[in-house]
Amino acid sequence: MADANDPVVPVIQRLIADHPAAPARLIVGDLWIGPNPKVNNMIRGYREAKYDWVVISDSNVRVAPDYLKRMVAHLDLGVGIMTSLVAGQNAEGIGGNLEATFLNTYYARGMSLAFAVKQPVVLGKSMMFRKSVAARFGGLEVLSRYLAEDYICGEAVRQLGLRTVMATDPVAQHIGQYSFSSFWARHIRWGRIRKMQSPLLFWFEPFLGIFASAIFGALAFQRLFGISPVLFACIHLTLWSVCDLLLMRRLGQKVEVKMPLFWFGRELLGLPMWLHIASGNTVNWRGERLKLQSGGILEANPPALSGATFNGRTQAQSSASLSLGNSDEQPSS
Amino acid sequence: MFLADLHMHSTFSDGKLSIPELVDLYGQRGFGAIAITDHLCEDQTFLGKAAGYLKQTLTRATWPLYIEILRSEAERAWHQYRMVVIPGFELTKNSVSNHRSAHILAIGATEFMPANDDVLMLARQVRAQGALAIAAHPVSTRKVEKQTFHLWDRREELRAEFDAWEVASGPYIFDEVRESKLPVVASSDLHAPIQMTSWKTVFECERSQGAIMDAIRKQRLSYTFYRDPAGDREVVKNDDVTHAAFPLGSRYRADHLGNVAGA
Fold it and tell me: Is A8 helix (H, G, I), strand (E, B) or coil?
């Protein structure tokens, strides 16, 4: 925990007390090792982790009871990192529902497509890797220089010739009440990270939305095959929307009348959001304004006591990391 | 005595193999030293920016991972194969004109540096961090590919600024360089395993980075044609190999060079 006053502290303490057989310890306080605040939050737990396998799971992620067992089932020596699809659930309000729709359509199909074309990406909401593998690329210490430590972790694993594997079951992100501005700011941040890391792909992102792909597809099919643009657009919009709605349902989004409305709203917001992303290189995260450099690297801005423990960030979102047994031992959850 | 290859590329730029795969490729063949030298392109020119967009070059962002993976793989290579892995990069200045294009190997470099300056300044910056500045394929490589003649055009001016010039690259030996009396090394410029059959440098010094760099500076080396014993894929297409000269040692001949790696 970054902050000793975090309301989750007594919950964790009670969990530890209820399971005395599980070797667990609560570590309070973060350590500045780089400009990425999430890595600063995790680094002490990471360094003190006893075993080789490390799971990083954000505090707003809910996993099934057999989550670890299912993750471990995929592990072999050729696997460098495991990640999971994130399903937005329990959304409330306009921002929350848009957020859930974004996760359950745009990101879900984008991530699935990336794995299908052998260009896997890692989502830091839930990931698992070996400390011994991370040590080969400099560990979390190196990742602290980047804003998207998850993406870089996946890239490092690829550079080591190891595989990134996606778990068969998605993890659930509890969304709850979410303001529109929070939703917008979060996706501007994610988008700018993507833009700085893969600028070439970023220019094609509008085509992952329904409208741009419908317009260009209709024009192309008319030119190549003489198919009516209106007919193409109707078929395209119908198929796309039905597939998206099925995906949203599959990922646990509540089925209700307003679901198509949020879906349509998200699609409408796609282009303005992309333009906003394209217009700048700074992001706001955890109360800090961070400037991204090419490749998603962050400008270092150490606190006054560089390297010292510091607490008390009011907007900190905690991340929990725990160490699992290595391949010779039974993992525990 | 051991074989060394001082010019190769990994997946950090346009190579086909990851750094661990390169280590295993050479380690399993008994090489004594390799230098991994991924492209580090200019970031202010169109071609340099394009390389960055296409992820064909080291960048400031990928540098920390690159150097850390090199460090850990160097340790593994030593423990597993007794092979020295030297960090480095290839400063890559590409232009539409071959006579404005130049590639400079920085062997032993561990600090990132942009490739935007003039080649003379770049060579000085490389040497200022204790690394070797080596002119990569300075004359025609005899292949259909981008050629880099700029360093060769300025060879008299740059003579004192470079520790060595590549006298062979891949399967081709450069008579112009051999006859110039410039200090030399021979390397593969390997991008894929099929290019293993190529010219390599032979050292008789201690297996350490410092000793190898010193041997290059003092030109205590020879070069040889290495035929990869793992595959029969013939990649040599010119006659240079058959009448190749061995200026600093004639004991290595093309017909038995596959055994040298195990020496």
Answer: coil
